[in-house]
Amino acid sequence: MEKLRVGFIGAGRMAAAVAQAMLLAGEVQAVNILASAPSDRNLGKFQDFDCKTTHRNLEVLENSTFVFLATKPHIIPSVLREIAPAVTPDHVVISMAAGVTLQTLEELLPAGTKVLRIMPNLPCVVQSGAIILARGTSAGEQDVALLKTLLSPCGLCEEAPESYIDIHTGLSGSGVAYVYMFAEALSEGALKMGMPWAMANKIAAQTLMGAAKMILETGEHPAVLRSSVCTPGGTTIHALHELEKGSLRATVMNAVEAATSRARELGKK
Ligand SMILES: NC(=O)c1ccc[n+]([C@@H]2O[C@H](COP(=O)([O-])OP(=O)(O)OC[C@H]3O[C@@H](n4cnc5c(N)ncnc54)[C@H](OP(=O)(O)O)[C@@H]3O)[C@@H](O)[C@H]2O)c1
């Protein structure tokens, strides 16, 4: 994969996270990554990675085959109009913009352009992200396979129908914030009982990571793992009863539904 050339139009937080993961895994060489943005605000990070940078979006098309669109969603239509004349059948265009559909991408690019959509989440920054990808009508098996290899250092990467992208936003994109709130509540519970906050915060995060790792590594249903922690009349079942009284499960299900519905609503605007 040494000669693969990857471009980023938009060089913000998510573009840098994806580029950094690719570099850490050695999937692409830094000299073969080119990022563009109108200002120097974010390009320094790419320069720190030894990647090339430019203020001209078209230069990215001229120098890369895999082109990630990583601007804010409302900028995407103008970027597509700008780059469309330079897009060739060799390019693979991958948008990470929330709410911008494959149909919009295909309509604004030349007919037959290989287009894919990805939806990453913030932990891609620490190579533990969850990404869903959906392919457009002209993207082939090989394009998907290559993209998956490129993105694998970011974390989990699953192909899915485009309709799952908004659900992924409700589950995982926004989901990280629900987990942070839960982590904060765990730590504050321990603080209330007398443990220093810094220690409680560290242990809460490790508890979340360990529990998540067991779900992934054992493949067990979370309910099975949960019941294995409960001894009759013990501490855990007393605590779980409190969580049930607070409707934890219904509240979290409502949260996923609310964020998914909002993502669908924003996608229609
Ligand atoms: N952050 C997340 O957790 C997350 C999760 C999933 C998906 N996404 C998607 O990822 C995309 C990027 O998000 P982000 O958080 O990385 O945004 P960001 O940090 O604000 O970065 C946006 C980048 O786009 C550049 N830009 C603005 N106008 C441009 C133009 N006309 N041509 C080229 N580049 C232009 C900006 O340039 P300057 O550097 O000059 O300001 C900046 O580098 C969004 O579409 C978002 O929906 C983000």
Entry keywords:
alpha/beta, Rossmann fold, ProC C-terminal domain-like fold, 8 strands, 52% helix, binds NADP nicotinamide-adenine-dinucleotide phosphate
Q: What's the architecture of the largest domain in CATH terms?
A: 3-Layer(aba) Sandwich
Q: Kindly report how far apart the N and C termini lie.
A: 39 Å
How many domains make up the 3D coordinates?
Answer: 2
Task: Report the count of strand segments.
Answer: 8
Under CATH, the homologous superfamily of the largest domain reads NAD(P)-binding Rossmann-like Domain
Model regions low in confidence, pLDDT < 50 over at least 5 residues: none
Most strands sheet? 8 strands, mixed
Order of strands across the biggest sheet?
3-2-1-4-5-6-7-8
Question: If you average the pLDDT, what whole number results?
Answer: 95
Order of helices and strands: EHEHEHEHEHEEHEHHHHHH
**CATH topology descriptor of the largest domain:** Rossmann fold
Oligomeric state of this protein: single chain
Q: Cofactors and ligands present?
A: NADP nicotinamide-adenine-dinucleotide phosphate
Description:
With 269 residues, the chain is an alpha/beta fold. It has helices at residues 13-24, 43-48, 57-63, 76-83, 102-108, 141-151, 164-173, 175-192, 197-218, 222-229, 235-245, 248-268; strands at residues 6-9, 33-36, 52-54, 66-69, 92-95, 114-119, 129-135, 155-159. It has two domains: 6-165, NAD(P)-binding Rossmann-like Domain (Rossmann fold), CATH 3.40.50; 173-268, Orthogonal Bundle (ProC C-terminal domain-like fold). The chain contains twelve helices and eight strands. An eight-stranded mixed beta sheet has the order 3-2-1-4-5-6-7-8, sandwiched between helices. β1 (6-9), α1 and β2 form a beta-alpha-beta unit. 32% of the residues are buried. Bound molecules: NADP nicotinamide-adenine-dinucleotide phosphate. NADP nicotinamide-adenine-dinucleotide phosphate binds at residues 9-15, 36-39, 41-42, 57, 70-73, 75, 79, 96-98, 119-122, 173.
